[in-house]
Amino acid sequence: MPRIPKSQAAKKQIERQKVSERREAAIKEYQDQLTAGLTKPSIPKLAQQHGIPEHTLRCLLNPGHHSIDEFNARKQKIPKAQEEVLVQWCMELSSCHLPLDHGNLLQYATTVLQTTHLGEKLSPRWVDRFLTRHQDRLG
Hints:
Layout: H1 8-36, H2 43-50, H3 54-61, H4 68-75, H5 80-95, H6 102-114, H7 124-133, H8 135-138
């Protein structure tokens, strides 16, 4: 079965995910080395090993710092937990062989949003961004 080519937005999302995984791996290795207690880990070496800028790693290790992923997650109108409900709903539609209509998805998402944020609305472009974010599962 031929694969559907990924859009530029999907490719960027995959690359951001890879960078995020490298950051998390560097942080975990730093913390593991600290708990082992042998010597203080070298931030420049860890940054180079994981292919991330040294300044970025230093900022991430700062206890008061939040990653760009956390920052972007806070900007979303619908939290991840509620987006997961929407993904499950889309998958249920698919399992019943019902088409995923953008209008219905927008209406259902707005209903979910209204449970926590009365009067808030979603733009029609929200559906496209949602589908791009969850392309791997909704493909």
